[in-house]
Design brief:
142 residues, 4 strands, mainly alpha, two-stranded antiparallel ribbon
Length: 142
């Protein structure tokens, strides 16, 4: 089997096409979720928190090093924990948004339960009452 025919078989497998469609749909879904977070969820959250931003919070570990001409040799060493906190908050919000969207999609996809044609099974009490009723009917007809 030639290299081109092997590649053609590989590229046109059903799984490969499904994966490609999944990646494209995932990318489009990502833009929808990003817009949901940035345009719908973040403005009220920013309003409620008073625009709290942790991005400038850091722990300074070491100053930058400069040569005699004033050119930076080594940059300063900072532990930028504030950006981590912002990214963590963004992650939680994105995860919540995805959860809500998937929950709504599953609810829309779920079919309502069909009512069964058969009546529900009788309980023991109902069976005994039915027997008594039938016995009284046959007695009154005699």
């Amino acid at each position: 089997m030639g290299l081109i025919s092997e590649f053609k078989e590989f590229a046109l497998k059903g799984n490969m096409v499904d994966l490609a469609v999944g990646v494209v749909i995932g990318a489009a879904f990502g833009t929808v979720v990003k817009s949901l977070v940035e345009d719908v969820m973040m403005p009220p959250l920013g309003f409620l928190t008073g625009g709290v931003d942790f991005s400038d919070k850091k722990i300074h570990l070491k100053d930058a090093m400069f040569d005699a001409a004033g050119k930076m040799i080594k940059p300063p060493v900072d532990l930028a924990y504030g950006r981590f906190i912002n990214n963590l908050i963004s992650f939680v919000i994105v995860a919540l948004a995805i959860f809500v969207v998937v929950k709504l999609m599953n609810a829309a996809r779920r079919k309502p339960a069909k009512p069964s044609d058969a009546p529900p099974a009788l309980t023991k009490d109902q069976e005994l009452l039915t027997e008594i009723r039938d016995a009284l009917r046959t007695r009154s007809q005699v």
